[in-house]
Design a protein that fits this description.
By secondary structure, the chain is α/β, with parallel strands linked by helices. It contains twelve helices and eight strands. The chain has helices at 3-8, 12-20, 23-31, 38-52, 67-77, 92-103, 116-131, 142-149, 181-187, 210-216, 224-232, 249-254; strands at residues 57-59, 82-87, 108-111, 136-141, 164-169, 191-197, 233-238, 241-247. Strands 1-6-5-2-4-3 form a six-stranded parallel beta sheet, with helices on both faces. The chain has a two-stranded antiparallel sheet with strand order 7-8. Helix 3 (23-31) crosses helix 5 (67-77), helix 4 packs across helix 5 and helix 8 packs across helix 9 (181-187). The longest helix has 16 residues, at 116-131.
Amino acid sequence: DYALPAWRALSDHAQLDSMARCYRVSRRCRRAGIEPHEFQWADSHAAVLNLDRGRGYYFGWEMGLGKTLGACMVMDAWDVNFAFIACPNSAKRDPWLEHLEAFTPWLHPVVMGNSPKARAAAYGECQERMAAGEPTALICHYDAIKLIEAERKGRRGWARLGQWDLKIGDEAHTHKKRDTLRTAAFRRIKAAGVLLLSGSVMSGQTEQMFVPWQIMRPKRFRSQWNDWNDPYLEVVDTDYGKVVVGPAPHRLNEF
C-alpha cells in the first residue's frame, strides 16, 4: 500500500536508476536464475529513501518472500561496508550466511559462535577488519549481543568496533518490550541506519508494535502513550486508567 504505488509512479528511467544502485546483487540474481519481484524492488527503493533521510525501515513480508534477499539489495544500494545482522541462533547460517555468500560477496561474513571462545574470535576478526576498512558483515544471535555488551564496564562491550553502516534486526516482532535485556542491547548498537525484518509484524498486542518503531525512529517515537497508543490505537478510560482495546484501523492506515 505504501511502496508499490510510489514505485509505479516513477518514470521508467527513475526505476532503472534505482535498480542500478544494487547492480551487484541483481547481477548475481540473474546468474542464479532469480528475478526479484516488483514488491522487492519497490520496498528496497523505499528503504533506501528512508535510510537516506535518517529513518529506519521495516520489511513485513511473509515467510518465504525473500526478506534476506531484500536486505542484500538494500545493503548494495546503500553501499554498506559494515553490517550488523542480529537474528535467531537457528538463522545464522541458513539463510543469512548462505545469502551473504551468494549475493553480497564484497562483504566478508563473520558468524558469531555460541561459546565464549568463538564469540571472542568473531569479535576480534571484526575488530581487525573494521580497523583496516575491510567490508564486513557480522551475523550475531540476539543473546550474544547482551553477553558481549556486559563484558566491559558501562555496557561498552561493543564500543571498540565503532559505528556500523547498517543494523539489521531479523524477526523484529520479538521486540515487544523495550526494557528487556535483548531488546535494550540491540537498541544500543550504534549504526547509521536500521532495517527490521519480520514475517509476523503483528504477533501480539497492538501496543507492542511501538517497540520496533522506536528502534527505527527513536526521536519520533519517544513515549509509548503520547506517540503510539493515543494517536493510533483505540483507548478507553477506566477507573484504573487508560486501557488499549485494539487498533484504530483508519489511524494505522494514515500512519
